[in-house]
Design a protein that fits this description.
581 residues; alpha+beta; four-stranded mixed beta sheet; 19 helices; 25 strands
């Protein structure tokens, strides 16, 4: 039976023609309409793009405000110049030549000083690119030299496009706003002074000026609880190619924007719509892009707490959760249950892991009986009310924190339902604020936490492991995170140092990296610092011919780019491929 609420909305729309045409503010034409759940300044949204609590979160629409040195194309593993004009490798120096026709939205010229500033902010945040660099300096106003400490085949990509998922860093930022921090980083490094307090200050820094980028669209200050607007930056070098004068972003999660979708007021959305809604959208004219997402939800534990500090207890939970069911009730055809629990998406497993490694992996196929045997072996027994009780009398009752996203809450509720069958009682706590959600993890103020695994910014497992073992684990200056000890004793590899394993997986040739990545996969599979559930598949509705035309064919190689990194739709807007009808 169809969802009654959706049918009600369809009936309303069908008999209300006025709803089918969005009335633009006076003088505003050539508008592209998207959707995102941003955080307004009054609710804590910051204009600092390198922190979790920035207003736009990790939205790909930020790529229209800020720019990177290059764009990445997944289908042929190439980089296209953006703020960089060209680059070259000379001995132990990677030299980037900058464009000379770039200005910031405030009218100031873009120079090498801005790039140096940005990379020393990355140094402050401890981003991986600095594992391979000695220093960054401006050779002249349009040339930046990156002195290489050690080489890895993906260093050019780290420098030019992706810093990995840690804090979502991607953009070149203006010295005029952030120079006081970068100058202090450089000074302290010169004198060997610590950065910890400065890092904390940066996390808390809320610029008193709005986003100032070099991108094709600029911040207008028009932001409310319901929508925000970006205006085309007429001094952008590609302004004449870009067809849209305005970007309108409707605010909200899936339930909030569904009525706008059904009224055809949104041109493109990446929200996790349930199968019934997707069917309705297809019936009224939306088409769908199947874009890689390279990540999915994962269950994490506070490993300082008993009994989550017991590997066997975590394994019992893994056996007790039917990942196929969890995927089905959450996103239906929009996901693929994880077959191998190795810490990075299953779509990439065949590319990186050997047959020998695959044979060693524990599958954790759904088996509640096996889960109960493990728990009984640990001394747990069911109490009179069916709840498990530990040998010391502790009842197995926990709180699971999740964010309010429409594709996270059902996953959390399903976990609670499944664990109740083996006597583990879970109460789901839904947080409506991203900052509070991340604060709970970072400070270790949680018992169970539904986060994510994988890294939509990259096509390399290293960055998924960095997310779990570094970003979610003892995050710099923030707290203990999941509290996973990076030095561990394992059955498969003996005593290991996870940091050293990641280091080896990040250096040498691609073949050497592929061989090295097998070891952290084995460690993750054996020790289970988290339980990946399923990998998202992008099933993004787009509207052709109402406000927007020029969509590339759905088999175009550009659509091999991930949804949230080098998003094809944003790239098509910036290139002038998409145009107003």
């Amino acid at each position: 039976m169809r969802n009654p609420m959706i049918m009600f909305l369809i009936i309303i729309i069908a008999f209300s023609p006025a709803l089918l045409v969005y009335s633009l503010p006076e003088g505003r034409t050539r508008v592209f309409v998207g959707a995102w759940s941003y955080t307004i300044p009054e609710k804590g949204g910051s204009f600092n793009p390198l922190v979790w609590h920035n207003l736009f979160g990790m939205s790909f629409y930020m790529d229209l405000i800020y720019e990177t040195l290059a764009w990445y194309y997944a289908h042929n593993d190439t980089l296209e110049p953006r703020l960089a004009e060209s680059w070259e490798l000379k001995g132990d120096e990677f030299i980037v030549h900058l464009r000379r026709d770039v200005v910031w939205h405030n009218g100031e010229p873009f120079t090498a000083k801005d790039v140096v500033c940005t990379f020393y902010l990355y140094k402050l945040l401890g981003l991986r690119v600095w594992e391979y660099l000695d220093y960054v300096k401006a050779l002249d106003p349009h040339t930046v030299v990156f002195k290489i400490k050690k080489w890895t085949s993906f260093l050019p990509r780290l420098i030019l496009r992706h810093q990995g998922y840690r804090l979502g860093a991607n953009y070149i930022l203006p010295y005029s706003v952030f120079g006081n921090f970068s100058d202090e980083v450089i000074r302290r490094l010169a004198y060997g002074e610590p950065l910890d307090d400065l890092r904390t200050a940066f996390f808390n820094y809320r610029p008193d000026v709005p986003y100032i980028g070099t991108g094709p669209f600029m911040w207008t200050g028009e932001v409310t609880e319901s929508e925000l607007w970006l205006k085309k930056f007429e001094k952008h070098r590609d302004a004449d190619k870009i067809g849209f004068d305005w970007i309108r972003i409707i605010r909200g999660e899936t339930a909030d924007i569904t009525p706008f979708m059904l009224a055809k007021e949104i041109d493109y959305a990446t929200h996790g719509f349930p199968p019934a809604t997707l069917k309705q959208l297809g019936e009224i004219g939306y088409k769908f892009l199947r874009l890689p997402r390279l990540f999915g939800p994962a269950l994490y534990f506070n490993l300082k707490m008993y009994p989550f500090n017991l590997t066997e207890f975590r394994k019992a939970i893994a056996y007790a959760i039917n990942r196929e069911e969890n995927c089905l009730v959450t996103v239906g055809p929009g996901g693929v249950p994880e077959k191998y629990l190795v810490g990075f998406p299953g779509s990439q497993v065949g590319r990186w892991l050997s047959e020998e490694t695959l044979a060693k992996l524990e599958k954790y196929e759904y088996n509640p009986e096996k889960a109960m045997k493990i728990l009984e072996g640990l001394g747990f027994k069911r109490g009179p009310d069916g709840v498990l009780v530990a040998p010391d009398g502790t009842r197995m009752e926990f709180e699971l924190i999740t964010i309010f996203f429409a594709d996270r809450v059902p996953a959390a509720e399903n976990i609670a339902k499944q664990l109740e069958k083996i006597g583990i009682k879970v109460k789901v706590k839904v947080l409506n604020d991203w900052s509070a959600y991340m604060y709970a993890l970072n400070t270790g103020n949680f018992e169970m936490w539904l986060g994510w695994y994988g890294d939509q910014m990259q096509y390399h497992p290293l960055f998924s492991y960095e997310l779990i073992f570094l970003s979610f684990n003892y995050p710099s200056g923030l707290g203990p995170g999941i509290s996973f000890d990076l030095v561990q004793d394992t059955k498969t590899l003996g005593r290991v140092n996870v940091t050293e394993l990641l280091e080896k997986a990040a250096t040498g040739t691609p073949e050497e990296q592929s061989e090295a990545i097998n070891k952290p996969a084995l460690v993750f599979n054996e020790l289970l610092p988290g339980i990946p559930l399923f990998e998202y598949l992008g099933y993004n509705p787009y509207l052709d011919g109402v406000r927007v035309t020029g969509w590339l064919p759905e088999d175009d190689p550009l659509y091999e780019n991930a949804v949230y990194a080098d998003n094809p739709v944003v790239m098509m807007i910036a290139k002038g491929i998409l145009k107003p009808t």
